[in-house]
Amino acid sequence: MPARILFIDDDPAGREVALFNLRKAGHEVTSAADGREGLAAFAAAPFDLVITDLKMPGIPGMEVLRKVRAHSPEVPVLVITAFGNVETAVAAMREGAYDFIGKPFHREQLLLSVGKALERRRLAAEVRDLRVRASGVGREIVCASDAMRRLLTIADRVAATDATVLITGESGTGKEVIARRIHVRSPRAEGPFVAVNCAAIPGELLESELFGHARGAFTGAVRDRAGRFRQASGGTLFLDEVAEIPAALQGKLLRALQEKTVDAVGADAPVPVDARIVAATNRDLPERIRAGAFREDLYYRLNVVDLHVPPLRERPADVAPLARRFISELAPGREIAVPPEVTAELERRPWPGNVRELRNACERMVVLCRGDAVSLEELPPLPRAAGERGGEEAQDWPPLPAEGFSLVDLEKRVIERALRLTGGNITQAAAYLRIPRHILVYRLEKYGIRRDG
């Protein structure tokens, strides 16, 4: 199979012979006359294999080997050494070279070594992909719209780097799915993917959750806790709802991002961490900055690459394939069709809860469907506007009986109605009720209320 090969040798005659043979075999070859030129070429473009002479003026081949292995350990390196120089070849193998080729080399020997190295790379990539799939981190993304295809193209390009990413978009658009895709397509894919919902954790506990604590740091700290930053070492830390981090904690997060160290609560010294940061929010962070609720320097540190996930109403071409996928997943073993009139209605709706709301609607249709096709009657009703209730109910709600009324029951009923109004979208329900999202999450757990109200 043709491959992209970087060939580094200061011997012009040997270099030309090798280039001729490799190109004749169908490979795309870039040549370099010394180590410095070779490393510059390697930094500028991706390669499947590097072949380098060991003895060169300037940067020697052993240093080229070390730098290639440090930057891209998945790229095999073949080293060229003079016959009889076995000690040098063994030293190169210990440094991570895949194999060595004696000089002067024959065409068959060169092509055989190249073929084995490329096969090793292919097998290693397959094993890596299997491990990543087995981890269950990745999620398949169904899309047909140009907007989502452009977003995924950029996300894949960013994944290959270690840049911090800020994913923005309305609640339910699939920001975490994008974050997971970035992780599984990154060099850190075999490391952990640690997700933290910053809005669901009370502010006084979030510091310990993120940075960890030492035993005895506070009442109840009976043992050391590593914290999510250290748990994500070698992988990706996903900070969901990052706009909800309390102002008092934002400075500590900024320092962790800048210094790549964390200060555990009650610990004596900072601990180095190696985690790639991907953050997400459905809030307008520039507006939060103007309101004094979010640090501007933290925003710029997080917003190295900004990926905006468009709402579902702006990409109606995605609605039908998403609905088919959800119905297939929710009805295993059943063949349920989606008629054109149902598809048209799904594409017509505004979906304020985005993909999450669409999935809830598909689940309802699957539960209610008794045939081999869903119908319009099985779709959830559109939420009524605030002014559409009956006159007496709108003017005097709730009714107050003479014998008294439970305030707890009232709160539960209000939360359930807000959830129904927003299609089960917690963030929108919290905004409707004018309370922080984590307070609403706490109330849902306290009262045992389902998100579908």
Please summarize what this structure is.
The model is unreliable at 386-395 (pLDDT under 50).
What does this structure look like?
It is a single chain. The chain has 453 residues and is of the alpha/beta class. It has four domains: 4-133, Rossmann fold (3-Layer(aba) Sandwich); 146-308, 3-Layer(aba) Sandwich (Rossmann fold); 312-378, Helicase, Ruva Protein, domain 3 (Orthogonal Bundle), CATH 1.10.8; 405-453, Arc Repressor Mutant, subunit A (Orthogonal Bundle), CATH 1.10.10. 46% of the residues lie in helices and 12% in strands. The protein is built from 19 helices and twelve strands. It has helices spanning 12-24, 35-44, 61-71, 86-94, 107-135, 146-159, 175-184, 203-211, 228-231, 247-259, 285-290, 296-302, 319-330, 340-348, 354-368, 391-395, 407-421, 426-433, 437-447, and strands at residues 4-8, 28-32, 49-53, 77-82, 99-103, 165-168, 193-197, 236-240, 261-262, 271-272, 276-281, 305-308. The strands form three sheets. A five-stranded parallel beta sheet has the order 2-1-3-4-5, with helices on both faces. Strands 7-8-11-6-12 form a five-stranded parallel beta sheet. The protein has a two-stranded antiparallel sheet with strand order 9-10. Helix 17 (407-421) crosses helix 18 and helix 18 crosses helix 19. The two termini are 56 Å apart.
